[in-house]
Design goal:
The structure holds two protein chains of two kinds.
Chain A: H1 3-22, H2 25-47, E1 62-66, H3 71-81, E2 89-92, H4 95-100, E3 109-113, H5 117-122, E4 127-133, H6 138-154, H7 157-167, E5 176-181, H8 189-218, H9 220-225, H10 231-261, H11 269-291, H12 297-314, H13 326-334, H14 336-348, H15 358-381, H16 383-387
Parallel strand pairs in A: 1-2, 1-3, 4-5
Antiparallel strand pairs in A: 3-4
Helix pairs in contact in A: 2-12, 2-13, 8-10, 8-11, 8-12, 8-14, 10-11, 11-14, 11-15, 14-15
Chain B: E1 4-15, E2 18-29, E3 33-37, H1 44-51, E4 59-64, E5 67-68, H2 73-78, E6 80-83, H3 95-105, H4 110-123, H5 139-151, E7 157-161, H6 169-184, E8 188-193, H7 197-202, E9 205-210, E10 213-218, H8 220-227, E11 230-236, H9 242-254, E12 259-264, E13 267-273, H10 278-288, E14 295-299, H11 303-310, H12 314-327
Parallel strand pairs in B: 3-8, 3-9, 6-7, 7-8
Antiparallel strand pairs in B: 1-2, 1-4, 4-5, 9-10, 11-13, 11-14, 12-13
Classes of the chains: A alpha/beta, B alpha/beta.
Chain lengths: 388, 328
């Protein structure tokens, strides 16, 4: 084939694509208007915009346990509370109780000042404080660690503790170090939580929304509608089929994660399977809602990309929801997938029992019910639109 | 059991401001082969889609084998079969797999379903192709597969919507013959088409649809005769003299038959007001004047001519088709 012919064929194919795209109003709307506009605006708002400052740790609840109760430790607390980055420091006297609160979303980190903190400073040794973090929120933990490190580095013992040192006749002091404590996860534990959810979401959505769209376009949906089968059976039948696929996918992901990448989930198989299926059901419900909107297969693919961006931007996949602000945090809180990631982290990383994750489960199951109910109503209402 | 398999009363379907079917009133008897004839966009497919419960009427009602299409849609679906372009089989399944799937959806018990599938595959000579994917079938075979699926549950009413379009002439004729047999077995068939010749050949009655309205209903003969009071008799009568011809004209006038008579190439063409005994009268007039008769044929107007006359003439049809194209 000559290069001219190849080029001409390529242009013809491109022109054909353009012609088809031109006639697909939903694809135009989503890809050229909604997608760029929505993400630019919402992420822009999420970042706070130019000229505004934003502290990701400012409002995150952190316990401060002072086991030293000295002037030096109080100075440290005062420095942190008066800073713009730790507005939500909660003073506590019970170290173990505070650590037990980690992973519940009531406390995200515990700063412990050990006994002898001031004495170490006075003795010219490096004093150490301990930071316990909620390791199901790696982004939040890293951010707290990073911000705290900055303050501790700026904590000047000479200036802060000088009057005291004079009394003790000590002339020089060393700095303060941080010891971070938390669970050390097997290599792929965090990856497992991400992969399990992402695989179910992407596959489930396309299977349902894309499959329904294909049925509609090929006329098989109309064929089903002229049989005595009710809409609910069509929805249920497709759900059953996709549930089987979701179970198979769960086995594959777990198998590869555990035996291939050394993941060691801190929970049992049935909890993982149940969570994986809950994620799949939410997604299938969303897929049915999308399919009732008479989307073409092209539009389904575009929405799939939309979904990817939603997951990455707002659902805590990359940036923990607690670190988002404004509109982006609201979007994150509204997305059921945020709760799916959260539940997976708490079970896989922290080993929390599934039934203890009440709020996550309520939101996920509630979303599933709402999506399925909406899909059922929409499919009935738009029955005619779907076959004409 | 009602005598009519299908009854519609003021059945209307609008899409926004466009009325696709406008106040359809028709009754179709059990075992009748009823044709809906009209150009593209006349409302035939919309009518079928309402009658098979895919579309809900905007106004009016329809009853199919005793069930209301609005309130008893599921029951209606149990008793109907549909073959239409927008109602397809699964392309990635074989014919057998499709039939098994639909036999389940129609609640046909397994042994009965297997027997019925075998019967249908034999009837349509599908035995060798039954394991083929539907996507691998030619248009004709794919259509036959769709008919198999529509007949699977032995429906009382079968909708065949533009079923011969895309078929070769032999397949189309075979399908027409098959449909007639179905009607003889008691199945009611609604046959929609825009091919004027089809209903004339096979339908018991024909409804002419135009711009969403049912313009006229009747047997093909009734429709043809409703638009023309003239019949033509063509007689092959060699060596007819002018004197003989004049005498024939006089005799016909005496019988009160207004005639236009033309003689050329041994053929005498007489266009007359239609009467029951026209051919006999012409023959006797010719024999009385001593003319020889080799053949004698009568010719009625075609359904196409009737259609054109009933829908307001060719110009009106052209205007409608242009409008329909613009809407499409």
């Amino acid at each position: 084939m000559s290069s001219v012919k190849f080029l001409a064929d390529s242009i013809a194919v491109a022109r054909n694509e353009l012609l088809q795209f031109r006639r697909n109003r939903s694809a135009i709307l989503i890809s050229l208007i909604v997608l760029p506009l929505f993400f630019t605006v919402s992420l822009g708002a999420g970042q706070g915009g130019a000229g505004t400052s934003f502290s990701p740790t400012a409002d995150i609840p952190i316990a401060f346990v002072d086991n030293d109760n000295t002037i030096a430790s109080m100075h440290l607390l005062q420095m942190l509370t008066s800073s713009p980055d730790f507005h939500n420091l909660i003073q506590s006297s019970n170290e173990q109780a505070s650590i037990a609160e980690l992973g519940t979303k009531r406390i995200y980190a515990v700063i412990v000042v050990p006994k002898g903190f001031q004495n170490d400073l006075a003795a010219g040794h490096q004093a150490e404080i301990t930071l316990y973090t909620d390791d199901s929120e790696p982004g939040v933990s890293d951010q707290i660690m990073s911000t705290l490190t900055t303050y501790v580095q700026n904590f000047d013992p000479n200036a802060e503790v000088q009057p005291l040192l004079s009394q003790l006749q000590r002339q020089s002091v060393a700095g303060v170090g941080i010891v971070r404590k938390g669970a050390v996860f097997a290599g792929f534990n965090i990856g497992l939580t991400v992969v399990l959810a992402v695989v179910q979401i992407f596959a489930g959505f396309y299977e349902i929304a894309g499959g329904m769209s294909r049925e509609r376009e090929e006329g098989t949906y109309a064929r089903l509608l002229v049989t005595p089968v009710p809409t609910v059976s069509i929805v249920l039948g497709k759900t059953i089929f996709d549930t089987l696929l979701s179970i198979i996918r769960t086995f594959i992901v777990l198998g590869i994660s555990i035996y291939g990448y050394g993941a060691k989930p801190n929970t049992d198989f049935f909890t993982l399977l149940a969570l994986s299926l809950i994620v799949a059901f939410v997604t299938m419900g969303l897929g049915f809602v999308a399919s009732a909107l008479k989307l073409g297969q092209r539009a389904v693919v575009i929405i799939e990309f939309f979904l990817i961006l939603f997951l990455f931007a707002f659902s805590g996949l990359i940036i923990d929801n607690e670190l988002l602000v404004g509109v982006s945090q609201l979007i994150g809180k509204a997305l059921p997938f945020t709760y799916a990631f959260d539940a997976l982290r708490r079970t896989v990383l922290l080993g929390r029992p599934l039934l203890s994750l009440t709020s996550d489960l309520e939101y996920l199951i509630g979303s599933t019910v709402v999506f399925y109910a909406a899909a059922f109503v929409l499919l009935r209402i738009s029955r005619e639109r779907l076959i004409t | 059991m009602p005598e009519e398999a299908i009854t519609t009363k003021a059945l209307t379907k609008s899409f926004g401001r466009f009325t696709a079917v406008d106040g359809l009133n028709v009754g179709v008897g059990r075992g009748e082969l009823f044709g809906l004839l009209g150009p593209n966009g006349a409302g035939k497919t919309t009518t079928v889609r309402m009658l098979c419960t895919l579309l809900e009427p905007t106004r009016g009602t329809a009853n199919v084998v005793g069930f209301d299409i609005r309130d008893q849609a599921a029951e209606v679906r149990r008793h109907i079969g549909v073959v239409s372009d927008g109602v397809s089989l699964y392309r990635d399944l074989t014919i057998e797999e499709n039939l098994r799937l639909f036999s389940t959806l129609y609640d046909i018990p397994r042994p009965k379903a297997e027997a019925r599938i075998k019967e249908l595959l034999d009837m349509f000579a599908f035995r060798e192709k039954s394991k083929r994917l539907v996507s691998a079938l030619s248009t004709g075979w794919a259509k036959k597969a769709m008919i198999c699926a529509a007949l699977l549950h032995s429906p009382e009413v079968l909708y065949l919507d533009e079923v011969t379009s895309g078929l070769d002439p032999q397949s189309a004729i075979a399908l027409q013959d098959f449909t007639k047999k179905l009607c003889e077995e008691g199945v009611t068939v609604i046959w929609t088409t825009h091919y004027m010749g089809e209903p004339e050949k096979i339908c018991d009655r024909v409804g002419i649809m135009f711009a969403g309205r049912l313009v006229q209903v009747g047997t093909p003969n009734e429709l043809k005769h409703s638009v023309s009071e003239l019949s033509m008799v063509e007689v092959e009568t060699p060596d007819l003299s002018k004197a003989q011809l004049d005498k024939v004209k006089t005799k016909l006038h005496a019988m009160n038959i207004v005639c236009k008579v033309k003689y050329a190439d041994s053929k005498l063409q007489i266009s007359c007001e239609r009467t029951e005994t026209l051919a006999e009268d012409v023959a006797s007039a010719l024999l009385e004047v001593g003319a020889k008769i080799r053949t004698i044929n009568t010719k009625d107007p075609t359904l196409e001519e009737a259609f054109i006359a009933l829908t307001g003439g060719e110009e009106e049809i052209d205007r409608f088709l242009e409008g329909a194209e613009r809407k499409a």
